[in-house]
Structures are given as structure tokens and as C-alpha cells.
Amino acid sequence: MCGITSYLGYRDAYPIVINGLQRLEYRGYDSAGIVLVDDEYNVNLYKTKGKVSDLKEIAEKNNTSGCMGLGHTRWATHGIPNNENSHPHTSNSGNLVIVHNGIIENYDTIKKELLTRGYTFKSETDTEVLVNLIEEVKKQNNCKLGKAVQIALTNVVGAYAIAIFDVTKKDEIIVARLGSPIAIGIGEDNKEFFVASDASPFIEYTKDAVYLDDEELAIIKLGRDIRIRKINDDSVVETNVQELKLNLEQIEKGGYEHFMLKEIHEQPKAILDTYRGRLLADKGIIKMGSVDNNIAKFLNANRIIIVACGTSWHAGLVAEYLFEDLARIPVEVEYASEFRYRNPVINKNDIVIAISQSGETADTLAAIKLAKSKGAFVFGVCNVVGSSIARETHSGAYTHAGPEIGVASTKAFTTQITILTLIALKLGNLKGELSNSVFHHYLQELNLIPAKVENLLKINSEIENIAAIYKDAPNCLYLGRGYNFPVALEGALKLKEISYIHAEGYPAAEMKHGPIALIDEFMPVVVIATKKGHYDKVVSNIQEIKSRNGKIIAIVTKGDITVKEIADHIIEIPETEEAFSPLLTTIPLQLLSYHIAVMRGCNVDQPRNLAKSVTVE
Ligand code: AGP
Q1: Which end of the chain offers a freer environment for a tag, N or C, measured as fewer CB atoms within 10 Å?
Q2: Which positions are annotated as active-site residues?
Q3: Which residues touch 286 (CB under 8 Å, ≥6 apart)?
Q4: Among 258, 263, 264, 311, which residue has the most ligand 1 atoms within 8 Å of its CB, making it the best to mutate?
Q5: Burial of 223 (0-12, 13-18, 19+ CB in 10 A)
Q6: Which ligand 1 atom sits closest to the C-alpha of 612?
Q7: Beta pairing partners, 506
Q8: In this structure, what are the phi and psi dihedrals at residue 226, rounded to the nearest 5 degrees?
Q9: Taking the model in full, what pTM does it have?
């Protein structure tokens, strides 16, 4: 979490850094700060609790000149969000300034040692300890900043992406990473450089970028090539410049009020982009290089273990139904945070699939490392190209959903399900579980999903009306069965994370084992009751809610008559195969949470306490 960005070159740093921070705000928004060094070596440091817009207001009343700048948007770990704890942090001499994304776990021990040497601290942060450690190392070894950073980092336990400079030199920035991402943009002839947690802050300036790997440190000096070294053994790393595919349009709101709404509406295209070139419905084949190249492993797998967090974990649960139902492969779905500490039994013939939108989630990354250490083949399903998880896994498939900026995952979820559906169908067919004709039928049907989602989105205003009725409800239940049980969980997560209404998802039949006690005339219950999914059973569950006066919002298949008579509201989805229904039933639930959150005046794209990529445990 936390977003860091920096500029060094010939342009005014302020607009680049401040706009960059706004683009990185999805990573945390507890506080923000910026430091600028002008031509006369004047250092202007502004920081504040709150959002980048608050910082902007403060900075723009003051001096914002200078061609060298560092910025930070924070998701608080050590110390409450206040001005003192905001980054950038300065060393005791005032010469070194740092921004940091991550956690220094042994900061307390280092701090005690520095206190005995006379250092003082203004904040409660681990980062202020780190910048002073670097200063002390530099002093003791009488070395250059790059070397001091390298030595200091070998004494640090934890995770970091840092950018640091010496305000008395205006041509050099040092950056380093372990566990948190960092991208470097390179301007023409090395006349300017950009640093950021992802490439979004600099896409309009350069398409040439370098992504640091873990344990790497880069010395960025104006007018010369970047020098990268391994932190631990000092070996030289070849600079691998990549061409960015991202464009500005993709990271702007494009006329929508919120990124979340834009991303909900992007789903027809995102799903299509995910299966483009992979699902060849007319030819009756699914082509996926990363699966094809490892096909023996997939076909001989005794078990698939899925590791993920949050919404990605819900996509994993949908995959459990897909793999078991279509390909008859046993599946276990694990919270990465539990899996990594549980000493799990992993066998040689198990495949681990790690699902992550950001590709940076710390728990998922640790689960992958654990699975690899036990000899498992690990396959990644990520959205962010070049992310840590994409690089750490043996093989994998990108979802190609495009940047997801709203903190609440929407298109990431449906595109993850799309990839997992493709794999399950392919394996099902190759294993002989799906005959060619059934397989071809599934391919044709999957090919229709983007158009069906497009149609479904037209009911936006109907959902808005339902949202207006329930926007003040203190609680909400979500029920579903089979493929749509994970969708119920996801619907509840969406509502709680952006509207702060307490919501729970349950398998519909579990209701009678406890949650039914909550039902009264004030309790809205969202029930997914699609025609092919244990329909009669779910109808009975709906009756049980009705007889306790609960308010029923039912998601039904178009043309449904039975539920229409019982439910207070119905939302119709187009007919499809039950295995693909999560791709449709999810959409109204996303819209419902979105509208409720907007009506409650919540910050939909940046809900409180959350961050888009969770790079801490
Ligand atoms: C969902 O809306 C969340 N913001 C969150 O649960 C998210 O899915 C989770 O943190 C996992 O992130 P990842 O997919 O980037 O690994």
C-alpha cells in the first residue's frame, strides 16, 4: 500500500508529482506529502493528513518550483494518519528525504540504536527511522548515498519500495525494492526520470520503463543510464527497458462519475479482451499458451489449490465449482493469509493457482513462495502486467481487464472468472468429461456473455430505484447456492466495503442454521435465484424469508414468474448456462452497492481504511 512517485529532470516537478499522486491515490489516502527542490537548492516540503486534494490546496498557496520532487500518498501502518507521520521524511541533518511504501519490521531495534547515537524523531513511523539509518551509515562509511542505502537495507527486515535523494545534489535519486513495486520511467537521452509505484504517473511522458525486481537498488543520475545492483551481493543487474502498453484514456474516468461505475460498464469489453484470441468458438477450441505449455501438469493434477484474498478469493470459489463440475478435478480454495502460515500439505501433483488483480498482494505472494518451496507448480491469474505475482509464478494468464482504479474490484472479478472458466472448459474437454458437442455448446454460450452483460447494464436505473429504497438499511443479507454462493459473498463484500452497511453472504440453505434469526421487516435480503441453479430449493428459501416479513430483492432469470410473485423486487438477468451465471448475476449486485454508496454520500472509489493493493500482511 502507499503510493510513491518522483521526478528528476528539466520540467517543473510539481504538476508531474501531484498528478502522479492523484493517480496513485488508490493505493492509500490517509495522508499525502510532497518535497520539491528548486534551482537555488531551497527545499519545500508540504504534507498533510487527508487526500492529495488537501495537499494540493496547501502546496499551491506556497512555492512549488523546482525540477526535483518526491511525493507520497499514505495508507497508515506505523502511526496514526497525521501531518507528522506523513511522508516524505527527512533525516536529522535535513539533507536526505525519503518516501517509502512497505513496513520496516525491525524499526524499533534500529530506532533504539539511533537514539543512543543522538538521533531524534518527529514521527512514529518506521520510515523516519530508515532515513536516519541511511544517514548514519553514510556518515560512518563516508560513502555515496547509493552505497549507504544499500548497506542500510541489508540491516532491514521487512518490505519496501523507497525513493530517496540528497537535497544538496539535484541530479540523483536512489530507489530500491523488496516486496513492494517500483517502476522507473526514462525520458529521452536520460534527460529526465520518473519513479512511481506503477507506471500511471508518467505514461504521458515516456513509454520506456524499467520495473525493479525484489532486492534491487537503482541509482538514477541525470544524463546517464540507470545502474541497477542486487542489494545483498552487490552484483550488477542488466537494465531491462520495457515498452509501456498503458495509455492515458485507460486511467481516466471517461465521463463517468466514478471509476467504479466506469469499470462496471467496461465489463463487456473486459470479458471480451480476456478471452480474445483464446476462445475460438467457431473453431471449437480454447487456445491458452500458458496452459497448453503445461498441459501434462494440468491433466495429471490430483488437486488444484487456489490461493487468493478478498474478491479474488471469491473468484477462486467460483472456480472450485467450475473445475469440479466441468473437469472433475478436486479443488481447495484457501485464503492466502491462512495458507501461508498453516504448514499445508502440498503434493508434487498438486497445482496451485494464485489469483490477484494487482499481482502485489503480500499474503498471496507469500503463499506462492511457500507452495513453490514445497515443489508445487504455481500458475498465476493476474491483471497487472509485470506485477510481482506474475513474475513469481511458474506460468500464468493475464486477465487483460485494463487498469482497475476503483478500490472495489468489479471487472477484475468477472475477468478472473472468465480465465478460470476457459481453463476449466479446456481441461474438461481434454479429460473427456465434456464431449465435443457439449464443449462446443459451452464455447458458443461463453462467446455471448459480453453482449448479455451489455444488455444487463441497461437496467442501471431500475437498480438505482431499488437502491433508493434500501440505502438506509443498517444490515443486508445475500444468499445464493452453487455457482452463485460465491457471488452472494462478493455482493455482500461490495456493499460493506463501499457503503459501510453491514452485509453477510451465505449459501441460501445455511440461512435456517442461524442467519434467519436476523430476518424481520427491516432486513433486505438479496437472493440469487437463477432458473438452472437449484431453483426450487432457493424458491423455498425465499418463502422462508417472506413468512418472516424480510424484504426480498431477487436476481432471477428473464421470464421468471414464480419468484416475481413472492419477491418485493426482481432483477432479471439473461438466460445462460449455470456455470456462466456468475458473470451475469454479479453485475446487478455491483450496481446496487454502487448506487447505495453514492446515495449515502460515501467515497465510492476510495472507501475508508482500504487500499487497492494490499502489500502488507
Ligand atoms: C475487493 O473489492 C477488494 N478491494 C479486495 O478484497 C481485493 O480483492 C483483495 O485485496 C485482493 O486483491 P488482489 O486481487 O489485488 O490480490
Answers
A1: C
A2: 2, 612
A3: 278, 279, 280, 422, 425, 426, 429, 443
A4: 311
A5: exposed
A6: 4
A7: 479
A8: -65, 140
A9: 0.84
C-alpha closest to that of 268 among 489, 447, 443: 447
In sequence order, the 6+-apart residues with CB closer than 8 A to the CB of 535 are 529
Distances (CA, A) of 249 to 246, 394, 601: 9, 32, 27
Joined together, the cell numbers standing for residue 584 give 451475469
DSSP β-bridge partners for residue 90: 97
Which set of grid coordinates corresponds to residue 290?
Answer: 500458458
pLDDT digits (tens, 9 = 90+) for 200-246: 999 999 999 999 999 999 999 999 999 999 999 999 999 999 999 87
Coil, strand or helix at 381: strand
- Give the amino acid at 361: T
Q: Is the pLDDT assigned to residue 613 strictly greater than 90?
A: no
Q: What is the 3-state secondary structure (H, E, C) of 411-477?
A: HHHHHHHHHHHHHHHHHHHHCCCCCHHHHHHHHHHHHCHHHHHHHHHHHHHHHHHHHHHHCCCCEEE
Instruction: Say if CB 320 and CB 305 are below 8 A apart.
Output: no
The three-state DSSP-derived secondary structure of 6-73 is: EEECCCCHHHHHHHHHHHHHHHCCCEEEEEEECCCCCEEEEEEECCHHHHHHHHCCCCCCCCEEEEEE
What's the grid cell of residue 13? 516537478
Q: Beta strands 183-186 and 193-196: pairing type?
A: antiparallel
Distances in Å between the Cα of 499 and the Cα atoms of 30, 408, 453, 471, 552 are 18, 11, 24, 9, 19
In ligand 1, the atom with minimum distance to the C-alpha of 494 is 2
Asked if residues 180 and 613 have their Cβ atoms less than 8 Å apart, the reply is no
Confidence of residue 179 (pLDDT cuts 50, 70, 90): confident
Tell me: pLDDT of 365 over 80.
yes
Cell 497487472, residue? 384
Ligand 1 is surrounded, with C-beta below 6 A, by: 309-312, 356-358, 361, 364, 407-409, 497, 613-614
pLDDT per position as a tens digit, 13-33: 999 999 999 999 888 888 999
pLDDT tens, 69-93? 999 998 877 778 888 889 999 999 9
pLDDT at position 247 over 90: no
Q: Show the cell assigned to 594.
A: 454502487
H-assigned helices in 100-244: 107-116, 126-141, 145-154
Instruction: Report how far ligand 1's centroid is from the alpha carbon of 408 (Å).
Output: 7
The residue written with cell numbers 517500483 in the block is: 182
Q: Please, which residues bridge with residue 74 across strands?
A: 31
Name the maximum alpha-carbon separation found in the chain.
81
282-304 per-residue burial string, b: 16 or more CB within 10 A, e: under 16:
eeeebebebbeebeebbeebebb
CA angle 526, 527, 529 (to 5 degrees): 150
